[in-house]
Specification:
The structure is a single chain. By secondary structure, the protein is mainly alpha-helical. The chain has two domains: 52 residues; 136 residues, no CATH class. The chain contains eight helices and three strands. A three-stranded mixed beta sheet has the order 1-3-2. A hairpin with a 4-residue loop joins strand 2 and strand 3. Helix 3 crosses helix 6. The chain is elongated and about 105 Å long. The N and C termini lie far apart (101 Å). The relative contact order is 0.12. Bound molecules: zinc ion (ZN). The site of zinc ion (ZN) has 5 residues, from helix 6 and helix 8.
């Protein structure tokens, strides 16, 4: 059987249903193209609008951050105590009671009474207001500060991990200064740090950590003299 079309015969006429379907498809394609064209024309307008919004948000955050962190207490050199003693090592054992661990911070608090009394009283206030949590978790990852102690900005809580008690008294005092410095930070920095995780996968923790690390370094100088 031959499949060659007969010359002059053309295509067979479309029946009514197929013709109506064809017209509907053409009409829909036309509407989609029309909408797409309108959307593409409005892209620059959206870009300008969102750029202005982002710039305004950044400006507001910078203005908020410029309010500063308030007064940060200075540090005095340690006079009489030995910062190299490891006096609370037993508190690093799992299952140690909170009262025993609180006692374990006594030597570090005595150092802070000389070096930075405001940090010592801040830690005591945390304890009195039940905003000092002793965690029984044990983790010593690459982020040493995060694994020894942490300040929870949202709950305004100081969390002390049990590994902290393996450090000497002077080091514990310096780390408490680090967490105190976090507690004084303007919330704008917290928002900026959170937004940095939206922009990049790893975020930019230095927005929060730089202040605290610098203060911890100053505390270490005052405590150990180096
Ligand atoms: Zn920190």
């Amino acid at each position: 059987m031959s499949t060659v079309p007969i010359a002059g015969a053309g295509f067979p006429p479309l029946n009514g249903i197929e013709a109506a379907r064809g017209r509907r498809i053409l009409r829909l394609s036309d509407q989609v193209l029309h909408r797409l064209g309108a959307d593409l024309r409005s892209v620059p307008r959206y870009l300008i609008r969102y750029t202005i919004l982002v710039l305004a948000l950044c400006g507001l955050l910078n203005l908020w951050e410029s309010q500063g962190d308030g007064r940060i207490p200075g540090l005095c050199p340690l006079r009489t105590l030995d910062p190299h003693r490891v006096s609370s090592l037993p508190c690093a054992a799992g299952g140690t009671s909170d009262d025993r661990r609180w006692q374990g911070l006594s030597a570090a608090l005595a150092i802070l009474d000389q070096v930075n009394p405001e940090v010592a009283s801040w830690v005591r206030q945390r304890r009195q207001s039940a905003a000092l949590v002793f965690s029984d978790e044990y983790c010593r990852g690459p982020d040493k500060q995060g694994s020894l102690a942490k300040y929870d900005h949202f709950r305004r809580t100081l969390i002390v991990q049990r590994a902290l008690f393996e450090e000497n008294d002077g080091e514990i005092a310096a780390i408490l200064c680090h967490e105190y410095r976090h507690s004084r930070q303007n919330s704008a920095k917290l928002v900026k740090c959170a937004l940095s995780f939206v922009v990049t996968a790893d975020g930019d923790r230095s927005i929060l950590e730089n202040d605290a690390l610098l203060y911890e370094h100053e505390a270490r100088l005052a405590i150990f003299g180096r």
